[in-house]
Amino acid sequence: MTVSPEEHDRHSAGILSPMVERIRLGDSQPLLISEAQVAELLTMNRALEAVESAFRDWAFGRATNQPRQRIHTPQGTLHLMGACWHVKGYIGYKAYFSFPAGTRFHVVLASAQSGEVLALIEADLLGRIRTGAASGVATKHMARPDAQTVAIIGTGDQARTQLEAVCAVRPIQQVRAYSRTPERLAQFALQMEAQLGIPVLPAESVEQAGTDADIVITITTAREPFLTGALLKPGTHLNAGGANSLARRELDTYAVARCDRIAVDDPQQARLESAELVLPIEQRRLGWERVIPLAQIVAGQMPGRLAPEEITLFKSLGIALEDVAVASVVYEALAP
Asked: How many CA atoms within 13 Å lie on the side-chain side of 181?
């Protein structure tokens, strides 16, 4: 992502967040922010606004993202990822530990001017909201404006924020959901229908959920692809958010090859983590030059859609800049 020297000078000369001056002063104790406080303060609309703004700034050189790194042990894994939102004055990282007993998430937010730690945030819910918000931002810029039906494959904790975000940016009239676990599917449908005020219908298969859907969301832990290219109709927008490892895929090669426009949250991270893109590229069904940073679409540097019949894909991996963006929302709501 490049920016002209004139553009860089214009934005770095003085367009800084009012919070920057406050957090330069420093020397206070960091805030310890709990899951309950995140739940109270971080609404989806606030998350959408922050993530969209951070992506736009990244396109103009006003933010930086470092892809995830993993440290494996025989017992579990440490995941580390960092980012800086320069124009807002924040730098931070997310660390989480995946072990048999569960996964524990934390975000550390600091001043980009002084390095002072501003907040330590419990980040399970924060991560789910920011992942949903990224899909919402992609949907806003890539899906057809008249999209009204959604298929969601997967009904775990991540699915709720995915659906909430998409419904916040498009006039969705009906949702069809599928899960391999009937009890979880039924509970998800009831809860989301009550929350969103639109029909959320349980489906008996991926095909039944996805046929003729305007927007398709995949948010599962699947290792083998289950969504085939034959299921995608012209005009579909697809948010694929479940797989962030070279050992996992939700989409088959034909599904990816059918997409006219493909965006990712971070192309560098996609090369390390996205089997759904790496395998088609190795098979010469796709080239990296066709994989567009979502930031460039948000900033208007690249189109998200050129025609109603295009099939568009946002391959979501989950990046640290999204964490820093939503962490800043929570911090600013509590900062003295």
From this structure: 9
In 130-224, which ranges are E strands?
149-153, 174-178, 200-202, 215-218
Mean local confidence (pLDDT), 90-115: 95
Which two tokens mark 166? 């998409």
- Mark 253-276 as b/e (b = at least 16 C-beta within 10 Å): bbbbebbebbbbbbbebbbbbbbb
Question: Which of 303 and 12 is assigned the larger pLDDT?
Answer: 303
DSSP string computed for 69-85: EEEE-SS-EEEEEEEEE
Q: C-alpha angle 17/325/288, rounded to 5°?
A: 115
| Per-residue H/E/C for 196-217 | HCCCEEECCCHHHHHCCCCEEE
Helices 157-169 and 182-196 cross at an angle (nearest 10°) of: 30
**Residues 270, 274, 278: CA angle, nearest 5 degrees:** 95
At residue 319, φ and ψ (nearest 5 deg) are: -125, 160
How many angstroms separate the Cα of 245 from the Cα of each of 70, 221, 334? Answer: 11, 10, 35
Which positions ≥6 away from 119 have C-beta within 8 Å?
A: 30, 31, 32, 33, 107, 108, 109, 327, 330, 331, 334
Q: How many residues does the chain have?
A: 336
Smallest CA-to-CA distance from 266 within 109, 111, 55, 113 is with 55
CB 217 within 8 A of CB 150: yes
CB atoms within 10 A of CB 183: 8
Closest CA to 256 of 279, 235, 224, 273: 279
Of 168, 204, 171, the residue nearest 189 (C-alpha):
204
pLDDT tens-place string over residues 277-323:
998 888 888 888 899 999 999 999 999 999 999 999 999 999 999 99
The CA distance from 242 to 47, in Å, is 20
Domains parsed from the chain with CATH numbers: 5-127+321-334 (3.30.1780.10), 132-319 (3.40.50.720)
Beta bridge partners of 104: 97
Pick from 11-25, 168-182, 222-236: least confident: 11-25
